[in-house]
Amino acid sequence: MLILQQILFVAALAATAWVLTRRIGLIRRAIQLGRPENRTDRPNERLNIMLRVAFGQKKMMTNVTVGLMHFVIYVGFIIVNIEVLEIALDGIFGTHRLFAPFTGAVYPFLINTFEILALGVWIVCAVFLIRRFVTKVPRFQPERHREMTRWPRTDAALILTFEILLMTAFLTWNASDSVLRERGVGHYNELKGVGNFVISQFLMPLFANWSDTALVVCERFMWWFHILGILFFAVYLTYSKHLHIVLAFPNTYFSDLKPKGEIKNMPEITKEVQLALGIMQADPNETPVEPGRFGARDVRDLTWKNLMDAYSCTECGRCTAACPANITGKKLSPRKIMMDTRDRLEDIQQGWQQNGPDYDDGKTLLGDYITAEEINACTTCQACVQECPVNINPLEIILQLRRYKIMEEAQAPASWNAMFSNVENNMAPWKFSPGDRFNWADQVNK
Ligand code: SF4
Ligand code: SF4
After folding, report:
1. Using a 6 Å cutoff on CB, does residue 27 contact ligand 1?
2. Which segments of the protein form a coiled coil according to its record (predicted)?
């Protein structure tokens, strides 16, 4: 029986590793579709940002209560899962609480810490579920935000419920195990000295009338549920917005270090303008290079960092809640821009899997996922960039799509075209000749 459990356990581990490797490979390939961009300069500054924003959750702390709750769920979940190391080794070697005999008082201390954190995670997940579905925090509601369709809401509910179930299984497993030790049943008797644990001891009375056999079944079931649940969770993450648990770290490390508000120039255009104004002289030996596409029409025209941003988005909606265009009822939602970019990447991946790596579904990010009306509503205020807790930059994608629409398709709103021709002719957005620029001064000191 024990050997069968070991075989099943190793098979579950191997299957998870196989699926995970495939999923990670696909996501990596999807991100690599993007154009190259160097984000490896100033490594110390980058490390510092990652430690503050991803580890320290600095931007979450603008709302201290929510920030602290998020911190509990994040730290708690990660630390509680350290216990998985022992569970995995027990599963492979057919042992029970492998570390307990060698670690003395450290063992109960660790399990007690895990239990306190597990309870914290349990409570915070319940509060988050209530915030989403009972008190209805506006930024999660589909009535106001059309991107919050059935799947993002189900995804959030599934993960929170799943974490509650995992923590419940962990505490119930410890409680049933403690009762078995107390009763001195079979091999459980060998660990009698470990004692009871700080939270699960309150669940032990629930098992008072259970037979030894029923208790062993419960202990085994909770053990299996806990570990299989974690393996399933690891795979599910790669399909979910919760991938940010992992990607928040590289994504913040590769943050944009430019000052906010500095918009990336297009080198080909800058050069043309400088040549036209005589600021730069043409190199007679230079072979003319055909300029590539201006702006972005699809994900392949964006940078790899834009695409990593899309996979790192937590769908929290803080960007959308701060977006003046969205607040004033325009169609634009920066959260939707990130979700659409990710959906596009996922659709491309699906195409690869079903029809081979060269498959082209004929769709494009601009047009099939994001409309001109959305991108034209952006004021480039950078509020979304400022608010994002994992340093995502939706504005970069919006600007690239807008550049394509205007420079490749010559489709800008009429009022913008007037502004463009003013800039071209008057070197200012207004309809005044440069010669009249100081007319206002004529009225001064008269
Ligand atoms: S930069 Fe654009 S998308 Fe971002 S908050 Fe401002 S208006 Fe909204
Ligand atoms: S872009 Fe950032 S702020 Fe906006 S939904 Fe995604 S994670 Fe949240």
Report:
1. no
2. none
pLDDT for the residue 103: 80
More confident residue, 164 or 74: 164
pTM to 2 decimals?
0.89
Ligand 2 pocket mutation, candidates 53, 392, 395, 396, criterion most atoms within 8 A of CB: 392
Task: Compute CA distances 353 → 23, 163, 241, 364, 433, whole Å.
Answer: 11, 30, 21, 18, 58
**Which residues have C-beta within 8 Å of that of residue 42, sequence separation ≥ 6?**
257
In this structure, the residue with its CA closest to atom 2 of ligand 1 is 378
Report the CATH fold assignment for 267-281+302-436. Fumarate Reductase Iron-sulfur Protein; Chain B, domain 2 (1.10.1060)
Question: What atom of ligand 1 comes closest to residue 377's alpha carbon?
Answer: 7
The rounded Å distance from CA 285 to ligand 1 centre is: 43
Q: Which whole number is the average pLDDT over 426-438?
A: 84
Give domain limits for the chain. Answer: 42-253, 267-281+302-436
Chain segment 87-118, per-residue pLDDT in tens? 989 999 989 999 888 888 899 999 999 999 99
Distance, in Å, from the CA atom of 387 to the CA atom of 318, rounded to the nearest integer, reads 6
Residues 217-238, mean pLDDT to the nearest whole number: 93
* 351 C-alpha to ligand 2 centroid (Å): 26
